[in-house]
Design a protein that fits this description.
- This protein has about 280 residues and is an alpha/beta fold.
- The protein is built from 10 helices and 7 strands.
- Strands 1-2-3-4-5-6-7 form a 7-stranded mixed beta sheet.
- It is globular, with a radius of gyration of 18 Å.
Length: about 280
């Protein structure tokens, strides 16, 4: 069984609509997958119907952005209840903050002679859950940069001229809302942060798993994070971080890498024991 618990759709910053993402998952011979869109669950209903038609298993998921001090982490949530009222209220607040952040970044770009309308960016975020990747693509389309990577390197990346930090959501709050929605919280791609000193605090806040398998966890990183999972008693998750294009930290196709089936079975057993199992 091939398992990929980290893929994205156009509901956040992926390029494929949910049904098209399901077809890409099927074409990659992945059997079980989780859509973990950034700060939104809007793609889950369409994906659930498409997955059922394709004979695939979809684990409802999400990826929340949160801060540990000044360090931004991403917290994955698995087996969440998309109808949970606390989760929905949290996401509504997050969406409003994203809009305010967009307008602040557009103002900075305007001051540098790069006029981009908010409507042009929001059109790329069909559900309004806008982020920097949408703005980067708008900058490419307007001819201000040659690629999304260039947009981040020159303007939108952390501490670059048009960067505006998100209003802080603490890792404790992100983990808490995932747990309140019946989910299992996992730390996404820890190798991108190299801040393993945060893990004890995250575990104390209710973190239950860590992403060991990720496209950027080569050169012994997967082995390192499996060792840390054992040390802290954490479950193991993993996936491709597929966004629809081979770019940056994302795999070129779903299932690269896959999560070993034994690790998924332990995750599944934990969800079943906690009464949170949802497909």
């Amino acid at each position: 069984m091939r398992i990929d618990l980290h893929v994205h759709t156009a509901a956040s910053d992926g390029l494929l609509e949910p049904a098209a993402l399901v077809q890409a998952v099927r074409a990659a011979d992945v059997d079980v997958f989780s859509i973990t869109d950034h700060d939104t669950i809007d793609g889950l209903d369409e994906a659930k119907a498409a997955a059922a038609a394709a004979g695939l298993t979809l684990v409802p998921g999400i990826e929340l952005s949160a801060f540990w001090g000044s360090v931004e982490f991403h917290i994955l949530g698995y087996f969440i209840d998309p109808a949970n009222s606390a989760l929905r209220a949290f996401l509504t607040d997050t969406r409003g903050a994203r809009h305010a952040r967009l307008h602040a970044m557009l103002s900075r770009l305007q001051a540098m002679g790069m006029g981009v309308r908010a409507a042009d960016v929001l059109a790329r975020a069909k559900n309004g859950n806008v982020g920097r990747p949408h703005l980067a693509r708008a900058l490419v389309d307007h001819g201000f940069v040659g690629s999304a990577d260039e947009a981040f390197d020159r303007y939108l990346g952390t501490n670059k001229p048009a960067y505006v930090p998100r209003p802080d959501v603490s890792v404790q709050a992100a983990i808490g809302v995932i747990r309140e929605a019946g989910g299992i919280a996992s730390l996404a791609h820890p190798g991108l942060h190299n801040r393993d000193d945060a893990i004890p605090d995250l575990v104390a806040a209710g973190l239950a798993a860590i992403e060991v398998y990720h496209p950027k966890h080569a050169f012994g990183r997967a082995k390192r994070y499996r060792s840390l999972a054992r040390r802290y008693g954490l479950l193991v998750t993993g996936g491709s971080d597929f966004h629809g294009v081979d770019q940056g930290d994302h795999a070129a196709a779903p299932g690269v890498p896959c999560l070993p089936e034994a690790d998924f079975q332990r995750l599944l057993a934990t969800a079943e024991a906690g009464g949170t199992l949802r497909f």
